[in-house]
Design goal:
Layout: E1 7-9, H1 24-34, E2 40-42, H2 43-49, H3 59-64, H4 73-84, H5 89-101, E3 117-118, E4 121-122, E5 126-130, E6 133-136, H6 171-178, E7 185-188, H7 198-211, E8 218-223, H8 225-228, H9 239-251, E9 255-261, H10 271-282, E10 286-293, H11 301-313, E11 317-323, H12 330-333, H13 337-349, E12 359-364, E13 368-378, E14 381-391, E15 400-404, H14 427-432
Parallel strand pairs: 6-7, 7-8, 8-9, 9-10, 10-11, 11-12
Antiparallel strand pairs: 1-2, 3-4, 5-6, 12-13, 13-14, 14-15
Length: about 450
């Protein structure tokens, strides 16, 4: 039976009957926070995922609904005062945007370092940070079925001028890929590309397939749709067309990796998500899973080990545990790096090798993806061992380095080099040439023709 998608936004937030148990103050706090940080949910999340007998502590509730503490006291008062004064809409938006600009809206050089120039034009719908992988932002895919409250891409959803990544067509992407033989992977991202109708997604994908770019090996689609609207692949009007498009990608000889975001085992527990995952896998696509580790949501080892086991049982591949990025409501969700590592280590040691495809905990920083390997004592000094899983400069990948032990640090910028060093090895390169396209170094060579999967 078809289930109709019903969005819930800040405009109809107060009409949700399940919220009637909250105090007037709590409901007002939701209004304040959702005036700054984006809010969107839907009837599947509300009716099938949230345990309303356990709010506000329910993890899916905190994952999707605004909480008072997601804004600092100063920012909360600023926005609340504007609402209580009944400021005109334009003035209220001005207050919200002032607050937003103080929340580090685009961390890790996404605008000034990741967006490439090509043939004299800045490609605002593309990011190219790592040598092998290009990120593509289709303009119609820059929203989601529901928003995660921790989302580091929150500026995509609030209309901040000049801070949104989007491309209206994939022609320039094809030209860019053809000119960069080191690129093997394209990641469709957002927002959520699966918010698009199948015809729109096809309009972006098919030109890439038709171009038969010899060095391109994998199409990735980053999506939360399995967790927040699995009916996209089962009963939505274009479900069959979407799955047919996935098969078309596979039949072209390319790998298709569906990069699914699951933050809690409960998102894996409905019959709808099980059916949707099976249908995607039947197309020949892989499903790889990832999520940040978040206070209030999944900061216990048993949650992660349970989640990885369930994912493997469903034919998925655990891929990444990330760390809360330095943007938005980081102060609400972040855990100390040492604690993140302890949780990962406990969860990892509690599952079989088949689940240990997962990597982490990892920070997506300006220089690259930095993994916390653990805490060691070397020559009488306690230190944190780290390494790059991915980096702007390919030669940094897998290179270990050490930071002074800091039980309070929540991000790379909080760490200091260990053993008397004045800086980390990568800092000098970034300081000397901050705009250098590190991904263009040491191009890789691949076969000119790919085998067909037919």
């Amino acid at each position: 039976m078809e289930k109709r998608y019903k969005p819930i936004t800040s405009l109809n937030l107060q009409n949700i009957p399940q919220l009637s148990s909250l105090s007037k103050e709590d409901r007002f706090a939701m209004q304040v926070v959702s005036s700054v940080l984006p809010f969107r949910s839907n009837n599947y999340v509300v009716d099938e995922l949230i345990d309303w007998s356990n709010i506000p502590d329910d993890p899916i509730f905190r994952l999707t609904f605004p909480q008072r503490e997601m804004l600092s006291n100063r920012h909360f008062r600023q926005m609340a005062d504007s609402i209580l004064r009944e400021d005109p809409k334009a003035e209220r938006l001005h207050v919200a945007n002032q607050i937003r600009m103080e929340l580090n809206p685009h961390p890790a050089g996404q605008i000034d370092q990741n967006m490439p120039w090509f043939e004299g034009q800045k490609l605002t719908g593309i990011q190219h940070k790592y040598r092998e992988t290009v990120l593509f932002f289709p303009s119609q895919g820059q929203t989601c079925h529901a928003y995660c409250t921790f989302c580091f891409r929150w500026p995509q959803f609030v209309g901040l001028e000049g801070l949104k990544f989007a491309a209206n067509e994939s022609g320039k992407l094809v030209e860019y890929l053809q000119a960069h033989p080191q690129v093997t992977d394209v990641l469709f991202t957002g927002g959520d590309p699966m918010i698009m109708k199948s015809s729109l997604l096809a309009a972006y994908l098919e030109p890439i397939l038709e171009a038969r770019i010899p060095h391109l090996r994998t199409i990735r689609i980053g999506s939360k749709s399995l967790g927040f609207w699995p009916y996209k692949f089962t009963s939505d009007p274009d479900a069959e067309q979407t799955l047919s498009l996935f098969r078309k990608v596979r039949d072209s000889g390319l790998n298709l990796s569906f990069m699914a975001h699951f933050s809690h085992p409960r998102e894996l527990g409905t019959s709808a998500v099980r059916a949707a995952a099976n249908r995607i896998l039947e197309t020949g696509a892989q499903i790889r899973t990832q999520s940040p580790i978040m206070r209030h949501i999944n900061n216990k080892a048993r949650i992660w080990s349970d989640m990885w086991r369930k994912q493997v049982d469903m034919g998925m591949i655990p891929y990444y545990m990330f760390i809360a990025r330095d943007t938005g409501a980081q102060h609400y969700f972040a855990l100390p790096l040492v604690e993140c590592w302890k949780i990962f280590q406990q969860a990892y040691s509690g599952v079989s090798g088949i689940c240990r495809t997962v990597r982490g905990p990892s920070m997506s920083t300006g220089p690259g993806k930095v993994q916390i390997l653990g805490v060691s004592e070397v020559a009488g000094e306690r230190a944190m061992a780290l390494r790059f899983l991915q980096a702007r400069c390919a030669s940094w990948v897998q290179r270990p380095f050490f930071a002074r032990y800091d039980p309070h640090a929540i991000w790379l910028s909080d760490l200091k080099p260990a053993f008397g060093a004045s800086k980390f090895f990568f800092e000098e390169s970034l300081r000397e040439k901050p705009d250098r396209p590190y991904f263009s170094q040491s191009p890789i060579h691949l076969p000119r023709h790919l085998p067909s999967v037919n």
